[in-house]
Design a protein that fits this description.
Blueprint: H1 2-26, H2 28-48, H3 52-66
Helix pairs in contact: 1-2, 1-3, 2-3
Length: 72
């Protein structure tokens, strides 16, 4: 559980850092829609996986979808 929580933290941190740059380049509306789509797909896949590494990837992707970008 600690490693899965670490995956959530790293995904959130990673997307918070680059989310603002992506929002400036592509527009905040597109980034928000892509984040919601990423979050919903990863939450669905988390309910289906039973192995550790696919769960770790899904938690990383879920956190990327839930991170709020830091706008420059």
């Amino acid at each position: 559980m600690g490693l899965l929580s670490g995956g959530i933290l790293l995904g959130y941190l990673f997307f918070s850092l680059i989310g603002g740059v992506l929002a400036t380049r592509f527009g905040s509306k597109r980034i928000v829609v892509a984040s919601l789509l990423c979050s919903s797909i990863s939450m669905f896949s988390m309910s289906r996986f039973s192995d550790f590494f696919p769960l770790l990837a899904a938690t990383f992707a879920m956190a990327q979808g839930q991170a709020e970008p830091i706008f420059p």
